[in-house]
Amino acid sequence: MERTEFSIVGMTCNHCVMTVTNALKAVEGVKAAEVHLDTNSAKVIFDAAKTSLATIKQAVQEAGYSAT
User: Fold this and answer.
1) Chain centroid to CA 12: how far?
2) Maximum distance among all alpha carbons in the chain?
3) Phi, psi of 20 (to 5 degrees)
4) Which structural domain range is residue 48 located in?
5) CATH of the domain at 55
6) pLDDT at 56
C-alpha cells in the first residue's frame, strides 16, 4: 500500500470535504481517504497496482477542486 498527502484547493465547508472524500473513495484501489478542511489537505492510502496518484488527483479535479 502507498500513502500520500496533498493539498486541496477550493474547499470552503464540510460539504466540500464530503464531496472530495466521496470522490477519493470512489477510485478503485483507494483503501482509505481523510480530508481535512482546516489544513485543506487529503491523506490517501491506495493500492499502486490498481490506481495511481494521477488518477486520484484527477478524481478530485472532476469533483470540482484542485489537487496539488
Assistant:
1) 15
2) 33
3) -65, -45
4) 2-67
5) 3.30.70.100
6) 97
Cα–Cα nearest to 60, from 15, 14, 27, 12: 27
Distance CA 53, CA 58 (A): 8
CB atoms within 10 A of CB 41: 15
Residue 17 C-alpha cell reads as 470535504
Number of structural domains, the chain? 1
| pLDDT tens per residue, range 11-46 | 999 999 999 999 999 999 999 999 999 999 999 999
HSE value, Cβ hemisphere, 13 Å, CA-based, for 31:
10
Give residue 61's pLDDT: 97
